[in-house]
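For practice. Any example?
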Amino acid sequence: MTQKIWNVYLSGEIHSDWRERIIEGTKAKGLAVTFTSAVTNHDASDMVGVNILGSEEDNFWRDRKASGINSIRTSTQIKEADIVVVRFGPQYKQWNAAFDAGFASALGKSIITLHDSELDHPLKEVDEAAKATCRQPEQVVEILSYLLS
């Protein structure tokens, strides 16, 4: 019998190594997991619309072009995910991550949130939709290890 390969979508904050820590942790444990994610190169993501569809003087339309193209990727990958991990970092407000969590919840996806305790109150509704709330990427790895064992 073939072992199921779990598909995990990694959403959220792009300014730390949390994704790499989860990916390396699952590799070290030999877990059958594939990972997908939004484009994490900030400039590539922000500029994709104007780079492909043409320049915009107004930042609203520049961002609108980029978000439209980026949403093709994110919505497809969230739909295909078994689990969605959503990271909220301390430095920036991740509105896109909150949207991803809401979208995943609406699709009935299992969600794991990852954030520091100072964000507990502002994220209480998002955490309520999650099956688990972690403080460290290694806790996500342990959950995946438990689920896949």
Summary: DSSP finds six helices and five strands in the chain. The mean pLDDT is 95.
